[in-house]
Amino acid sequence: MLTAIVDYSSGNLHSAQKAFEKIMALHNLGSVVVTSDPKIISSADRLVLPGDGAFPSCKSELMASDAYEALVYSVVEKSRPFLGICVGMQLMAIKSYEYQETDGLGWIDGEVRKIKPKDKSLKIPHMGWNTLNIECNHPILDSIQNGDHVYFVHSFQMMVKNQDQRLAYTDYGTDITAIVGKENMVGLQFHPEKSGQIGLKIIENFLSWSP
Description:
Elements: E1 2-6, H1 13-27, E2 31-35, H2 38-43, E3 46-49, H3 55-64, H4 67-77, E4 82-85, H5 87-90, E5 95-96, E6 102-103, E7 110-114, E8 126-131, E9 133-134, E10 149-154, E11 156-160, E12 166-171, E13 175-182, E14 185-188, H6 196-208
Parallel strand pairs: 1-2, 1-3, 3-4, 4-14, 5-7
Antiparallel strand pairs: 5-6, 7-11, 8-10, 9-12, 12-13, 13-14
């Protein structure tokens, strides 16, 4: 089984790759490659889209990359399991309002907007460890419990319109979408590669998932 981490000049590719390699070696779950090669992306068994920075620049970089059409083909047409991480998750939305209105991939019925905690003493970006509150059963959450801690770094969040597509949230002065899911697609607002054993378990669940 081959998992492709899509390289489009955005995202913390090295740490994500190391986390996937660790789980794959431990559980014999295939191999992982960081690539922008459309042939590899089209033939991969699983796709991972990381992302760091601002939504508009990440979307622009993705659209300009060789990987874009192959990614859409693999996820939408071939229904390959897909994992979006941080801005890679946000790109799944219909649109974002970070700096400017920007269309997303349209895979999840939601919009990306700035976090506005009711408690004005809470700083933005939302940075650090916070708890997961699970709303829907999903294989990605196998052995994950309410209250488990994961690591966030973001100033914007996905506002999901179809609540069935929000699998978990966290509380930071307001409900913040933590995990989304639809059919063969899952998105994580937090960084599983920085979230210790809980993050590694979520990666293992993704690699074992058969949508």
